[in-house]
Amino acid sequence: MILLQPRSKGYLWLSGKSPFSSPFIDPRYLSHPEDIEDFVRGIRFMRLLEQTEAWKSIGATLVRHDVPGHCSEQIYDSDNYWRCIGRHFLSTAYHFVGTCRMGSVNDPSVVVDSRLRVIGIKNLRVADASVMRYLPSGHTNAPAMMIGEKAAEMIRRDRTHRYNILTRIDSIKYFMD
Question: Considering only Cβ atoms within 10 Å of each terminal Cβ, which end of the chain, N or C, has fewer?
C-alpha cells in the first residue's frame, strides 16, 4: 500500500555556500496526522477485500508479521495497532518534489518561474522533479523527463530568439552605415 498524496511536508536547508556541502534534509514523515489515518483507512479497505469472492478464491489474506517489542501492547487489528505499525514500519518511495517549486514570482515559496529560471539568478534553470508543486499520483520519472524536455525546448527557443534579435540588429546597423 502506498500513500500517493501525503500531507506531511519536510524541509531542506543548505549547510553552507559551497556547492559541495551536503544539505540538511528533514523529511518529517507522518508529521501530518491525516497521513497515518489514511494508512489505517487503507488497511481497513484491504481487510474488506479479503472478504470478497475474488480474494477468497485465491486464498489471499493479510500476513501478520509481528516483531517482538513493537506494538505488542496494542490489540491486534485495532486502529491503534495499525497506527503503531505504521509509525514503526512505513517507508517512502523517495519521490521528493517541491524543493525548488515553480510558480508565480509573487509567491514567496517559489524558487523558479514558469520558464524554470531560478528567480534572482541569471542564466540558471532547474529542470527536475524538484520544481513540481505537488507529488503526482504515480512515479515521478515520466514527469521529470517531460520537465527536462520542456526545459531543452525553452533553452533552444531562447537561443534562437536571441540569435534572431542579434541578426536583425546587425542588419539594421549594416543598412545604417
Answer: C
